[in-house]
Amino acid sequence: MTGGGKVVAGNWKMNHGPREAQAFASRLRLPDGSSAEILLFPPAISLAGVREGLEGSGLTDRIGLGVQNVHFEDSGAYTGETSVRMAAEAGAGHVLVGHSERRHVFGETDADTARKVAAVFRGGLIPVLCVGENLQEREAGRVEEVILRQLETVLASETIRLSMASDDAGFLLAYEPVWAIGTGRTATPDDASAAHAVLRSHLVERLGDRGRHVRILYGGSVNPDNAGDLMSAAEVDGVLVGGASLDPGEFSHIIGAA
Ligand code: PGA
């Protein structure tokens, strides 16, 4: 874990079009003295709206922007897709890769996520790789096996490991148990710590010292009431917030808990 502040990231999923995005960003107020690193992942089509709103509220320099998905090719005949270069040009610095909805609703495989992480590094942006087990896997005692498989598919690529080893290549990991996403059922801080510790030791085994500095975020029904406890848990370097990031007041409370 790094010594810096916590990361508070908001994943809007398929919510807030350009106008609502602008309104959100112009209404967002940060708690006094907050040192959290703040990231927002609006729908790609709403990035410009968020940027305009942030300019209005004077927060452009305080909030990093990202997209929720990219294609792994740099350009071409891929109707409906967004490339890393396009995302960067629209103002994204980060990219969510392998969110459970991408995996389970859109059938994205571990191999796809590895190709996307490679594309994000190639384009000079920062991937936020999401991993997490579903309820059946948790109940079968397979948490460790599942999350390590999802992480290792990415780390198995030498190109990716070399990108990660370079000093300025950022990489974040998000542990998001599928049973906790959008369900109101949150992992306990101890559950989160245990999973994060498993991921941390694998990162260190594969990346050496660099693995100690990868920030690991927890995601799954984070809200203003539980964010503080989760972020105080060992190995939890921040949170990835879905539903509770849609309202500027609630999101600001979570930032305040960091
Ligand atoms: P949630 O979503 O906070 O609404 O559970 C988290 C996520 O999917 O990133």
Look at the structure and give the mean pLDDT. 95
Bound molecules: 2-phosphoglycolic acid
Tell me how many strands there are. Answer: 8
Query: How are the strands ordered across the major sheet?
Result: 1-2-3-4-5-6-7-8
Order of helices and strands: EHEHEHEHHEHHHEHEHEH
Backbone structural class: alpha/beta
Global geometry: globular
- Any low-confidence stretches, pLDDT <50, length ≥5? none
Strand content: 5-15%
Helix content: 40-55%
Which radius of gyration do the C-alpha atoms yield? 17 Å
Number of helices: 11
Please tell me about this protein's structure.
41% of the residues lie in helices and 15% in strands. It has eleven helices and eight strands. The protein has helices at residues 18-27, 47-57, 84-89, 100-104, 110-122, 135-139, 143-155, 158-165, 189-207, 227-232, 248-257; strands spanning 7-11, 37-41, 63-67, 94-97, 126-131, 172-175, 215-219, 238-241. An eight-stranded parallel beta barrel has the order 1-2-3-4-5-6-7-8, surrounded by four helices. α1 (18-27) packs parallel to α2 (47-57), α5 packs across α7 and α7 (143-155) packs parallel to α9. The longest helix is centred in the last third of the chain and has 19 residues, at 189-207. The protein is globular and about 45 Å long. The model has no long low-confidence stretch (mean pLDDT 95). Residues 11, 176, 181-182, 219-222, 240-244 line the site of 2-phosphoglycolic acid.
